[in-house]
Predict the 3D structure of the following.
Amino acid sequence: MSETHPLRGLDDWEQSLRDRYPAGLTPPSGQSALDQVEKPRDSFRNLGDSSPPGVREFYRLNHRYQTLEYVRGKRADYGRLNRRQMGVWEALEFLNTLVDDSDPDADFSQIEHLLQTAEAIRADGHPDWFILTGLLHDLGKILCLFGEPQWGVVGDTFPVGCRFDNRIVFHEFFADNPDSANPALQTELGIYEEGCGLDRVLLSWGHDEYLYQVVRPYLPEPALSMIRYHSFYPGHREGAYQWLMNDHDREMFAWVRAFNPYDLYSKGATRPNVTALRPYYEELIARYFPPQINF
Ligand code: FE
Ligand code: FE
């Protein structure tokens, strides 16, 4: 475990989500490809009690360092989209060079996770942009390959610039966040106006917001919301921060919630055949994206 990399791999965080949300929003039985996937066995477990030390340390760092100033800085920096030009499939292969520290062979690769998610969405007969969103949704994790620490790439996201809601997992670690000592940032609204809409709100920095910035010109709005808010568990699973949302956000969150089970529970299906699936997905990508985009 190192200071910036307490998780053995990014998947440790996703496993902790499955532990925390073992079931819930899966579509009705018999109607979804997700029904074929092995379901978690036990009921609700308290993450705080049972999570591995690496996950706990990961959240300690995340909650300590995700400040308003940090988020503003990362948004401005990565918002320039001047790191690389790549085709979308090329970017998926770039992401795939990210290998977990432990057991690189035991688990699914990044592309395999993305294809499992997309294939489950496809099997349920959803629109092509929804399938494409499944394929892309974690592409922002290339932030790791640009040198960002784990706590700046993954983790449940939450608004900065206002009080940290106590429904955020490991809420107690916010005591060490410098913003906690600034009374102006600790009211329910903080720097925001009631009902201003999430587009005006700065969420903690990570792979969701980064990928949103990258794909914003190319995808329909529900797809963009699924990408931008898929890690916003305090919002889409815990119902917090309603006072910052507007009616449009509430409409879009129906899509975010529809997407979530495919993200969390499509794992464990059979290993996808990347070579066989690639032509279908290359064609799907070409329907929405130019050959190269800016990252
Ligand atoms: Fe993700
Ligand atoms: Fe994911």
